[in-house]
Amino acid sequence: MGEKIVAGGFDLSDRQRYRRKLQQCLAGLGRLLAEKRFDRPKNLMGLEIELNLAGSDGLPRMMNAEVLDRIASRDFQTELGMFNLEVNIAPHRLGGRVLDQLAEELRTGLGYAHRKAAEIDAGIVMIGILPTLDGKDLVSANLSDVDRYVLLNDQIVAARGEDFTLDIEGVEHLGCTSSSIAPEAACTSVQLHLQVTPGRFAQVWNAAQAVAAVQIAVGANSPFLFGKELWRESRPPLFQQATDTRPPELQAQGVRPRTWFGERWVGSAYELFEENLRYFPALLPICDDEEPLRVLDDGGVPRLQELVLHNGTVYRWNRPVYGLADGVPHLRVENRVLPAGPTVTDVVANAAFYYGLVRALAEESRPLWTRMPFETAAANFETACRHGIEAELEWPRPGRGGGLTRVPAVKLVRDELLPLAATGLDAWNVEPADRDFYLGVIEGRCRRRVNGASWQVEAFHRALDAGLDRRAALAAVTRRYTALMHTDEPVHTWPAGPRD
């Protein structure tokens, strides 16, 4: 076809071959689903937490390679920014004292990592966005020295063709530009995985989408960016804008962003993978040698590597995941809604609330998503991100009368959703002691109207009132937050701020 057309390091033939492979992978997934080849449910859950590195002064440390050398554990990995790490917890079976077990493993692992990091003044901080990050910290030179991050940055930059615009109107206004995806590294989250059967996938994913706003309302922990007070959970708008491959003219045409909430309830996991192929061009068109349909014809199970890779470059807040374990395929719902922190106890409480709630909602005879338009769920998500624990959400009225009503998130959680979450945890056979303790943390936040974001904002304004300038106030908040984080007392019980 004459000379190669090269864009961003991949030529046109690479992209055409990759798209053909994606289509084959999608067909392979369809066959696996039709043939019912998937693993039987094992009630498995998984957990990943993205972390920040900050010194005793509260400022970020670009030292993840050195810290990982000291930690020397496969549980800890690099993340996008040099000030980031990620910890992965092995899958657990939901049931019994799993929540306490999970908390103990996290306390042990994070405590060890913090001690090793502190040897070079780069301690661990679990927080949605580190308040002391500055524009000069979030530049391409501070991306982790890992080929896939460099390649991803190059491809997103090439696809966009111009600088990224960050424009977030919150309590204050942030407006700036970036020549790389480095601002995305500011967003550190908790990812909750739940293995599901194909027949249950849609119910669980729809339930997770419906309650994403509630998760944010009670769990918001990211009110600051570049010294500005923005939304109570500023990660979603930041993440969308920092990874937006659409130049303004495509945005105006309604082309979908790669970071998105979605636009409809679904009937199967296949629909989401098919949407990925239909709506989103490949960023990393790297082809595997596997021929998925031939593997299926030979009685094997394909890895579907292109499908998995492409799925990883579409940033849904609830993402479908295809994987293999011991040669058997499985599906997971990956919940990516929550920010990291504030404490291990808070993280596990958020997980208990989520796993209990989606189990109960997925089994309702009149599913929530049949009583609430998808557009309402999406609007609720933005409202919760803006206002956090003070958010008011649109929610179906109790009973069979139908219709929506506006209700404070804290009232909705205490009156309706915590009892549902308790029922769901009972269905998972979680011990009542674990159920009551961790759901009690969520109830305490609602009763006191305090979560990580509201604590940070209150502490910041107290520091300003005490005479500190903005930069010093944010550093003081970060130091105090870090000290309280290591006590593992839940955030709603913390004293008010740096002056205490």
Key attributes of the depicted protein:
seven-stranded antiparallel sheet, two-stranded antiparallel ribbon, disordered N terminus, alpha+beta
Report what the structure shows.
- By secondary structure, this protein is α+β, with helices and mostly antiparallel strands.
- The protein is 45% helix and 17% strand.
- It contains 16 helices and 17 strands.
- The chain has helices spanning 12-34, 64-71, 98-118, 147-160, 198-219, 235-242, 248-252, 269-279, 292-297, 305-311, 344-362, 374-387, 409-427, 432-448, 452-465, 470-485, and strands at 6-7, 10-11, 44-54, 76-78, 84-93, 123-125, 164-169, 173-178, 190-196, 224-225, 228-229, 259-260, 315-316, 318-325, 328-335, 392-396, 404-408.
- The strands form six sheets. Strands 3, 4, 5, 6, 9, 14 and 15 form a seven-stranded antiparallel beta sheet that branches. It has a two-stranded antiparallel sheet with strand order 1-2.
- β14 and β15 (328-335) form a beta hairpin.
- α2 (64-71) packs across α3 (98-118) and α5 (198-219) packs across α11 (344-362).
- The chain is globular and about 70 Å long.
- The protein starts with 5 loop residues before the first strand and ends in a 15-residue tail after the last helix.
- Mean pLDDT is 94; it is low at 1-8.
